[in-house]
Amino acid sequence: MTATEQPASFKLIGIILALVSSACIGASFILKKRGILLAQARAKEQGKDTAAGEGHHYLKNRTWWLGMILLAVGEGSNFAAYSFAPAILVTPLGAMSVVVTTILASYFLDERLNMTGKIGCMQCILGAGIVVLNAPATNSTQTVREFWGFVGYPSFIVYLVVLLASVLWLTFWAGPRWGSKNPLVYIGVCSLTGSILVLSVQGFGSAIVYTAVGPTDANRADWVNQLTLPDFWALGAAVVVLALTMVHFLNKAINLFNTAVVTPVYYVCFTTATIVSSLILFRGAGANQTTTIASIISTVLGFLTIVGGVALL
C-alpha cells in the first residue's frame, strides 16, 4: 500500500484550519468549565448539589452550551484540517488551544498566569512554528480503500487490540477506583480513543476532498465517488462512535479537575498517542519517500519544545 501525494497548497489550508480549531477549542474549555461551575452553584442553591464529576446540571446552562457550540466549530475545523494536512502536522498545533485556554482562564476563571506560564506560552508558539516549517507536506491516503488497506496491516491490528484492552481497563477497572483522584485515568481514555479518531477523521475527510475535487488526468481511469462505497460509511460510523466516547470522558475530566491541569495533560497525552498511532499505521507500512529523516527529527524536536512549554503552564 502506497501513499498518495496531494497539492502543496493543502498544507497551508490545513495549518489555517488547525489554528482556527485551536482558538475555538481553547475558548470552549473556558466556557464549558464556567458553565459547569455556574450550574453547580445553582444546583447547590436549589438543594440539588451532587458530588464533583456526577450529575448533568450543566445541560441546562447556556454558557456550557455556548462552549459546546465553539467546541463543535473547533472540531469541525480540526476535521477539515486533517483532510488537507497530515496528522503529524495538525495534531501538535493543538498546543495553541492550550495557550488560548491558559490565557483566558486567567481572566475568566481566576486561575493565575505567572511568568513561568507566560514563558510556557511563548515556548508552545515557538515549537508550533518549528513543526509547521518542518512537518511533511503530504497526506497518507486519499481514498477509503487506501485507508482500510493500511489498517489491515498486522502491526496496526496488534496495536489496535492493545489499545482497546487499555481503554477497557481504564474505563471499567481504573475509572471506578481512581478516576476521581487521578486525571490520567479519563484523560487516558480520551487520548487513546482520540488518537484513533484522528486517523479515522483523516481517512474520512481525505476521501471527501478526493470526491469533491473530482477526477483528474492522473486518476481519471480509476476514480470512484467515495460516497457510494460502504467502506466510506463504515468509516463515518467509526468517527461518530469514537467522537462521542472521547467527548464523554473529556467532560468527566473537566468536571473533576482544574482546567489548568486537564488541558496541558490532555494535550501531551493526546498528541503523543496520535503521533504513535500515525507512525504505526503509516510508517510501518512504508512512509512517503518525500519525508526525510531531517524533517522527522525537526518535527519531533518541535513537538518536544511544545511539550516543554505545556509543562510550564
Give keywords:
single chain, 313 residues, mainly alpha, globular
Itemize the secondary structure elements and their pairings:
Blueprint: H1 9-45, H2 62-84, H3 87-90, H4 95-108, H5 115-134, H6 144-151, H7 154-178, H8 184-213, H9 230-256, H10 259-283, H11 293-312
Helix pairs in contact: 1-2, 1-4, 2-8, 4-5, 4-10, 5-11, 7-8, 8-9, 8-10
Question: Can you give me a brief rundown of this structure?
Answer:
With 313 residues, the chain is mainly alpha-helical. The chain contains 11 helices and no strands. Its main location: membrane.
Quickly count the helices: 11
Global morphology: globular
Q: N- to C-terminal separation?
A: 41 Å
Q: Helical content, roughly?
A: over 70%
Q: Say how many strands there are.
A: 0
Question: If you had to describe this structure to a student in words, what would you say it looks like?
Answer:
The chain crosses the membrane at residues 12-31, 88-109, 121-138, 150-172, 184-212, 232-250, 257-281, 293-312. InterPro entries: EmrE-like (IPR037185), Mg_trans_NIPA (IPR008521). It is a multi-pass membrane protein. With 313 residues, the protein is mostly helical. It has one domain (9-312). Helix content is 74%, strand content 0%. The chain has eleven helices and no strands. It has helices at residues 9-45, 62-84, 87-90, 95-108, 115-134, 144-151, 154-178, 184-213, 230-256, 259-283, 293-312. Helix 2 crosses helix 8 (184-213) and helix 4 (95-108) runs antiparallel to helix 5 (115-134). The longest helix has 37 residues, at 9-45. The chain is globular, with a radius of gyration of 20 Å. The N and C termini lie far apart (41 Å).
